Amino acid sequence: MGVKRHLAVAMAGGLLALLGVLAWSLWAFDEERRQVAEPLERALGSGTWDAYGGWAAAATALAGIVIVVIAVGRLNRSLLSNWLPHPDDAALLLNRKVVLAKGPRIVALGGGTGLSNLLRGLRKHTTNLTAVVAVSDDGGSSGRLRAAFDMPAPGDLTDCMAALSDNESELARLLQYRFTRGEELRGHTFGNLLITSVTEVEGDFGNALRSINRLLDLSGRVYPATAQPVTLVVEKEGGETVRGEVNLRSVKGAVVRMRTEPDQPEGLPEVERAIRAADLIVLGPGSLFSSTIPPLLVPSVREAINKSRAKLAYVCNIMTEAGETDGFDAFDHVVAIEKHGVRAPDVVLWNSTPVDQARLVNYSEEGAELVGRARSSLELAGVSVLELPLLGSGAYAQHDSDRLATVLADLATSGDRSLKVGKTVRVTGVSP
Prior knowledge:
This protein is α/β, with parallel strands linked by helices. Helices cover 48% and strands 11% of the residues. The longest helix has 34 residues, at 47-80. It is elongated. The chain starts with a helix and ends in a 20-residue tail after the last helix.
């Protein structure tokens, strides 16, 4: 931040002012300045000065420096107390902002808990973050608001904004508060109502998110993949067609292909600019067909990714999802991404930590199983595979957000987009 440099300049300015005052005094005394100079000469020529003059000068200079530092510190605390409850933390907070502002430019696409958990980890490495969020959900609070206001789904946007807030604990509790009373409010979260309210004021969903990004002072930016309400239309492996995300798993079997209605939704220019400027683009983690692929169905987003020179990383899910990815391995996930018009990832991140039996049993009851790694198939297709211990704690087989963020931040700063197939990439803080 240059604090020491500015403090040194201030001290030099004070010394220069002192010299100026002394010079002016000598000029003002003119002929009578000898009356001032002679006593000084006698003092400087005395034995006392010879013995202790150097120490006295050093002590005086040191005292002056201490007084300047204390005065500047107190001035800063006095000024900062109007904005911060703990002014002494200002240096740490400002240093964090300066350091993170120099971090890699990362764009993460997806939705659900997977994206918001990832953002909580990435915000510790950079503030040059852009979250591109799926807005096709048509169930719960989001579905009711979509039907009432003809707007995109706000639910996943709310979670991502809470994850990127500097006051995450307080803001998350507020944004994710779900009303339990009131016939019209019951089931809605405050964050969903906030987005809806600002959309009504601004008259446009995209402008509403721009305003909310400024209002919440996030450690990054959160944008919808499209500002239009879209509905997912899914073709299942049995030939059935299913409309709407809420009905996605109502028909058994894996998804073969997916599109949106309307089929050419418009993206936001901020999203395109962020993708073009990115060092790393991240797909996942999250439900492949209801979170990761929906943003890719927006033509401008898809085109920007395909033209970008940034590395493209796919965080493969740990478990399959019944009614979406039944029987899928990691290679099948990549094929599904390519099938929907996006270039193959440069690298696939795959969790190498074994999932405990208790969690496997819980997932098996839902018809889910471990995703096979399919390393040889991916490497034959020219895709690098990073197998790292990324499993988090808890009841679900989800990624550890801090470990995953560390891997991705290292990938973003590793330089060349091309990665040698099969190469073990050394990641800070994570042992392969």
